[in-house]
Amino acid sequence: MTPQTLNTVAIVGAGLVGSGWALVFARGGATVRAFDADPALRARMPGRIRTMLEDMRGAGLVGSVDEALARITVCDTLEEAVGPADYVQESVLERVEVKQAVCAGIDAAMRPEAIVGSSSSGIPASAFTAGLKNRARFLVAHPVNPPHLVPLVELVPAPWTDPEILPVLRAAMEGWGQAPIVVNGEIEGFILNRLQGALLNEAWALYEAGLASAADIDRTVSHGLGLRWAFMGPFETIDLNAPGGIADYSARLAPLYHSIALSRKDPRPWSAEAIARAEKERRETLSADQLEARTDWRNRRLMALVKHLRGQPG
Amino acid sequence: MTPQTLNTVAIVGAGLVGSGWALVFARGGATVRAFDADPALRARMPGRIRTMLEDMRGAGLVGSVDEALARITVCDTLEEAVGPADYVQESVLERVEVKQAVCAGIDAAMRPEAIVGSSSSGIPASAFTAGLKNRARFLVAHPVNPPHLVPLVELVPAPWTDPEILPVLRAAMEGWGQAPIVVNGEIEGFILNRLQGALLNEAWALYEAGLASAADIDRTVSHGLGLRWAFMGPFETIDLNAPGGIADYSARLAPLYHSIALSRKDPRPWSAEAIARAEKERRETLSADQLEARTDWRNRRLMALVKHLRGQPG
């Protein structure tokens, strides 16, 4: 199987993530067949995707809205969606029994050579594919929300996933405009949420100790660390931060970072007091009824940033 | 004292960081008086700053190069530089005995109402200002490298720093175009390097375990987490990642992040084997003789990103 053969993609689960995925595949040129068990979500999907595509066209990220939309068919049954698919993206509720039931349905309806990626953000594929006939064709393909604006996708195989799937799906994801990575094992939180969690855990510990306001901790990232991380990862960043590269940097600074790690050997859960204080601080900056508008602002900022980054030399 | 009174700024230490600071203050409209004990560095400074300013003008970040340069005077003695200064930025070598000696010289030459910020990235102000006559006027003002491209500045007082200095210097830094934060205590690594260290420690642990390549871990940040962190901090990011805001997000996800923290209770130093492997992987992507050119690329990318971010609605 070559990457080019993943021409028809089924979407199972037409919520926000599934709709974002449908847009990604249709924008990338695939024929998309979408299904959701909830008829209301099925009915809502095309309008929702049109709005997202129009926002992206406004930001210069998409050519023709109608052309992309024309590639999407909403189906009335799981079988209609999955039957002809080369690739299936499952994006149902993050509950193991729900994933198990839906994946059993996909397993029964799919072509044996199709590949099935789950949008699971935490549950490993081994927890809901063990008993399936085609279990070697299943893995996790975890996107960032929203998938049509943040391209990273974590491909996480179960122990029984056929390893030949990985380069195929990786190349196909690249072709659709995403940025796939391969995770070699079912570690809790995969890579992205572990990295985010490490930073968040430290941020909460500093905040709980009163060392800085939430706004100042945010600023440390948005006006400091995040500028480099928007176009270079942490390893390339330190590779360029010492004259002799990453080994030179490590020789100088590894002891400091180890000492910092040792100071957090006894991790406590995020404290209820700190959460209540942060909620109060955030609501003074952004009231609860503005959260949705601010999320729209975030999406517009992401679109503008993606547009900017695309124009830059790699 | 009001922020407006910080009109004359002395630079002590004219290396890369000191030169970047001189540019920041001159661009911000201050009169800058620079000194370095090394005559060769003093002689090199104006040309170095001119090159940086020309690069920034090329990126649309600076108007007149000559106007900014005209505000900078290189002085032959510490006294000439520091004597008339309202604010002194010390950027000498990161060694405690060097900082002690230089700060004693600044202490003897300064006006008693001046403020002295040290560029120290790790040594707290209490380690090199304890015996000074004007010790209440000293604190750490830690920039990110390069300070003229990444605006974050950490203001970290010693126990004896006059608290009235903090709002004054914070406002002045804002006026010069930087993004200051206040750290309420001399914690090791301050805020920025603790957040960077938390993420790096997790990245190294994942890499050491073979869970992903360094390139894929980098991609997780540069095509995932870093896109949001380029314009929002970690707290605002999670505030917008659950319908009910940060408290709602925490109720859903704090247990996962605590579980991740518990899996790293026994931190080990970055392993020599992993460092050697990462060095090899990086050098296959970027040979040692390309490091300097890639650093120039990084600076151009930072300039373009800063220019993009300035044009966006906050």
From TrEMBL, chains A, B:
Lineage of producing organism: Bacteria, Pseudomonadati, Pseudomonadota, Alphaproteobacteria, Acetobacterales
Domain 3-hydroxyacyl-CoA dehydrogenase C-terminal residues, every copy: 189-250
Keywords carried by this UniProt record: Membrane, Oxidoreductase, Transmembrane, Transmembrane helix
Annotated TM spans: 6-26
EC code: 1.1.1.35
Protein's name according to its UniProt entry: 3-hydroxyacyl-CoA dehydrogenase
InterPro entries the UniProt entry points to: 3-OHacyl-CoA_DH_CS, 3-OHacyl-CoA_DH_NAD-bd, 3HC_DH_C, 6-PGluconate_DH-like_C_sf, 6PGD_dom2, NAD(P)-bd_dom_sf
Protein family per UniProt: Belongs to the 3-hydroxyacyl-CoA dehydrogenase family.
Record has Transmembrane as a keyword: yes
Domain 3-hydroxyacyl-CoA dehydrogenase NAD binding residue range list: 8-184
Enzyme class: oxidoreductase
A molecular function (GO) term: NAD+ binding
GO biological process terms, semicolon-separated: fatty acid metabolic process
